[in-house]
Amino acid sequence: MTTAPSATSPTDRPRTLADPDTPFAVVDARRARRNIERLARRADRLGVALRPHVKTAKSLDVAALLHDGTPGPVTVSTLAEAEAFADGGYTDITYAVGIAPHKLPRVIALLRRGVTLRVLLDSAEQAACVAEAARAAGIAVPAQIEIDCDGHRGGLRPDAPGLVGIGRVLHEAGCLDGVLTHAGESYFAHGADEQRLAARNERDAAVAAADRLRAAGLPVRVVSVGSTPTAHAAEDLTGVTELRAGNYVFFDLVMAGLGVCAVDDLALSVVVTVIGHRPEYGWIITDGGWMAMSRDRGTSAQPRDQGYGLVTDLTGRPVPGLVMTAASQEHGTLTARDGARLPDLPVGTRLRVLPNHACATAAQHRGYHVVDSARDTGPAPAIEAVWPRVNGW
């Protein structure tokens, strides 16, 4: 487990958000814990295991919050993440991106270390490669068949003619582990009713695929579903064994725009500094551009476009009407909307910006400065720790 370096030294005063060079990423531990506990309680009520996706935070310290400090089941999006989390003591990992044949030696190396690493596939070609690699190595490579529940990305439809054949190839090599689906279109499902429908469709697709395989005499141990919107909307997961989600630990403005969370739930922000003004245009200029926030404009397709992010003061309180509406590489432009008055923010003022897409914004930073709004609501909250990211650059 990575040990977070201290935010203080014996001879220094406690560091606060007023100290590090900007821009930098901040995690509010209180909000993150609250978000984690919310979904954990829901998974318990639904009677399924929770397999969090660590691609958002990519941090052993954040992951430690997920299972009370004990490594538990996780989902990853790269083999570098799988290797880093294996180094941190995680032994139950699903690599939820379709497997490329040239990556199988790295998969097998992790399996030989005692890590249960599942791979994902949706074609006969991939299944044949996995089966061949498993036989050559003399070790089973657990594989899940990706099911397409909504046309969002990859996968096989539950009624696809080739589904059973792929399952049989994997089973004969001792590799068939189960089925997995992801309701990616739920990120465009506005409101509780649409999200419940997406969750029901996600479950039905995965269970139907599993039932087809079982009817053909093939064992299906795992039926895995999940996305942040559907995980929070699901009402009945009969036939499902595990639930996956990742964005929920931090949440973001896209999720708030869908109604999955409130703005007050967003645990990730970026601290920037005011470096100039263009009063003739109604602009405040900061040192945080798209290199700090990412280019993600996910809320532009929502009824409420949040630009590149909503602006708060250092305590996390929103500055009324102030939005990051434009970005170049290292410059952010803040403007007022909805008739709000542009605030008087002198050069040197520090602000926090809440992101559209937590995964994309987190990827711009090496790690997180951690604050806890449950304990510190002062004008410049104390930095309690610095949590590095794995595979950060």
Shape: elongated
SSE run? EHEHEHEHEHEHEHEHEHEEHEEEEHEE
Give the rounded overall mean pLDDT. Answer: 95
- The percent range for strand residues is 15-25%
Largest sheet: 8 strands, parallel
Structure description:
It is a single chain. The chain is an alpha/beta fold and 393 residues long. Helix content is 28%, strand content 23%. The chain has eleven helices and 17 strands. The chain has helices at 29-46, 60-63, 79-87, 104-112, 124-137, 163-172, 191-215, 228-233, 253-258, 290-293, 358-362; strands at 24-28, 49-52, 74-76, 92-98, 116-121, 143-147, 176-181, 222-225, 242-245, 268-278, 283-286, 309-312, 318-327, 332-336, 350-354, 367-371, 385-388. The chain has an eight-stranded parallel beta sheet. It has a six-stranded antiparallel β-barrel with strand order 10-11-14-13-12-15. The longest helix is centred in the middle third of the chain and has 25 residues, at 191-215. It is elongated. The chain starts with 23 loop residues before the first strand and ends in a 5-residue tail after the last strand.
Question: Any key phrases for this structure?
Answer:
about 400 residues; single chain; alpha/beta; six-stranded antiparallel beta barrel; eight-stranded parallel β-sheet
